[in-house]
């Protein structure tokens, strides 16, 4: 849990029953079970293919596998989707919903091997996709992530939290706990998003039997690079999640209020299909109050952190410090932590995901081609460098990025300077801003 960069675990799941969970095997475990698939285009557009722009169909895994063979004139739920033009993705499938009457299968996934006693499939999510299926670039507001690759390979494009300004964050489409990037990181529009050139891409092709650790707030774009891929993941809760839920409640209240006022009859244009809860202002205010109350209840009970830790510079909130992107309250490393970092944890069975060579994504041949190579480091050398001069350089680059973004917008043609609701929201619910608002709310309640 002290790792601050992505890493791949090898030789950890060879005895897990879930290592045999191919799509074919799961189709036999779930005969006749209809699952919702997200259907996307195999395009190379510079705009991200958000879930609001995709179509959906309900199908069994057997029907998915038949369609994925590329047979012409197929009938059934995939009949309107030409296999040469579309990909299919059964994503975010929670085990408790998928295997509702087969709970014994939860024991096939043993996250307890990673030091989380009792964690198994009950706290896990299943992902099944065809070639090209992908998740747009985003960061998760809550927790960190463990991802077990079962079948096929997935290419992960990862960016550190400090590079957030270069990823042009947005909350449209809105999904709780997901901050999306406006940039299609595999085919970026560098004229519209020039700061993306500064983002430091880390890439790895995750193979069957490997487990990827994604630290808190690392951006990631994930694409299937084999004909069929199956993955299992679990989001691990963190202490920081209690405040993050307050930030998310603030974000939800603002997004829903402004977007509903703009167009009360078209939520599908801005609300992610994964969001099924009611979005009324009354409900959102209750959600916000619940998040704040839960925050206080947690710290009153556990007494893990003193409330003074929420303040910087004595009684004053130092806004400048909070505008430094990627601050997670861990920068004041203790001597013990430094010693632990000096002794690198990496070796043959724990491999760091290192920064990729500077290369435009278009020069790699697009998202549907793969040379099968891993972008893994061979030792821990890069990890040691990560916390010295590079970290100092990141902070100064991040601060400058905000100023440079404003300057670049100043050259926009007059016809494009009209401020839209989305433009306003991108500022109001920027993760940097909601972090400050959440801390102010918590301080006010505490006083």
From TrEMBL:
Composition-biased stretches, type Basic residues, lie in: 385-395
Location in or out of the cell: Cytoplasm
Q: Domain named JmjC: which ranges?
A: 87-251
Primary localisation category = cytoplasm
Any one GO CC term of the record: cytoplasm
Region (Disordered) residue ranges read 378-397
Which keywords belong to this entry? Cytoplasm
InterPro entries attached to this UniProt entry:
Cupin_8, HSPB1-associated_protein_1, JmjC_dom
Please describe what this protein does. Answer: May play a role in cellular stress response.
Subunit info?
Interacts with CRYAB and HSPB1.
Name the record gives this protein = HSPB1-associated protein 1
Q: State which gene encodes it.
A: HSPBAP1
